[in-house]
Design a protein that fits this description.
nine-stranded mixed beta sheet, alpha/beta, globular, three-stranded antiparallel beta sheet
Length: 322
């Protein structure tokens, strides 16, 4: 682990896995009978840029709906969470959403956690300028693999903020494991403020992941560009197509990259064959009912607290205590 004090109130800890781990995870996923890649690999600088563009698309209701909830209910959320303590944000990205809560919460320490190091550092520097009173300890790490943070002040109440419905990217069993890790982190008197997407009409979901401008398709295909650069691969992006659909029995959106022809691709010296129409499964986005998610959280050691929804019932921000 490398930790730097960049400014009087800004520290940066780099715990990102080495490139060899990236290559081995990619190869392991492509060796499976149904080829799979983790969505955490989307977020190189170009992937971060494209995702921010997705968040502003008219079809992609998730970000603007969650922001509206946080904006409208910031004071109520602050009353529920309490002021001070340590606020840990998983998948912080550009820290856009936490800005809506910082003045109300006034945490003693804010710890943004993200796997995209350059993006995390840039966002943390901007936040430090805009909030000179705030102690920031940014941590670049892969929270999907384990939940060990580099720095936690002793004696402070800890709250994890996990917005964006990112919990939906995990299989339910994996989501429970992650939530258990969060529960251990925030014990004995902390909590979790989490955003998750609600079940709704399939047409709304389909449109959100198949935008008319094709930005989500670019985002999905950029994953292959990341692998070409980071795992010595030779994917031809022109021979794959974005494919996203709602799998109703499983309650999830699935994103795939579908091969447009029979082809072979070399990754880190290993050759992989793709049949015409064969796909790489790149992301799931599970949608939950509120009681369904409460049951999941209870199994992980949390007790449901208050929840806040938009008027159209699209999205939920929920607080859980331990």
């Amino acid at each position: 682990m490398r930790t730097e004090l960049l400014e009087p109130r800004l520290c940066f800890s780099d715990l990102k896995p080495p490139q060899a781990d990236f290559r081995s995870e990619v190869i392991e996923g492509l060796r499976r009978p149904r080829k799979t890649l983790s969505p955490k690999f989307f977020y190189d600088p170009e992937g971060c840029r494209l995702f921010e563009a997705i968040c502003d698309l008219p079809e992609y209701y998730l970000t603007r709906t969650e922001i509206a909830i946080l904006t409208e209910h910031a004071d109520s959320i602050a009353q529920t969470l309490g002021r001070g303590g340590t606020l840990i944000e998983l998948g912080s990205g550009n820290s856009r959403k936490v800005r809506l809560l910082l003045e109300a919460l006034k945490p003693d320490v804010y710890m943004p956690v993200d796997i995209a190091g350059q993006h995390l550092l840039a966002a943390s520097r901007e936040l430090a300028v805009d909030h000179p009173w705030l102690n920031i300890h940014a941590a670049c790490l892969d929270y999907s693999r384990h939940f060990e943070l580099p720095f936690l002040p002793e004696g402070q109440r800890k709250t994890v903020f996990f917005p964006g419905s990112s919990i939906g990217n995990f299989e339910p069993a994996e989501a429970e494991i992650l939530l258990r890790g969060i529960a251990r982190c925030v014990q004995p008197d902390g909590g979790l403020l989490i955003g998750f997407d609600l079940k709704k009409d399939a047409a709304v979901l389909q449109a959100a992941y198949n935008d008319s401008a094709g930005v989500t398709a670019q985002f999905n295909l950029n994953l292959l560009r990341c692998i070409n650069a980071g795992a010595a691969a030779n994917f031809d992006l022109g021979r794959f197509r974005h494919h996203a659909f709602f799998n109703e029995p499983k309650g999830r959106i699935e994103m795939h990259l579908r091969s447009e022809s029979h082809q072979r691709v070399v990754v880190a010296g290993e050759t992989f064959e793709f049949l015409d129409g064969e796909s790489i499964h790149t992301e799931n986005s599970y949608k939950y009912g509120i009681e369904e998610f409460r049951t999941l959280a209870r199994h992980a050691g949390f007790e449901p607290g208050r929840c806040w929804r938009d008027r159209n019932g699209l999205f939920c921000v929920h607080y859980f205590g331990v």
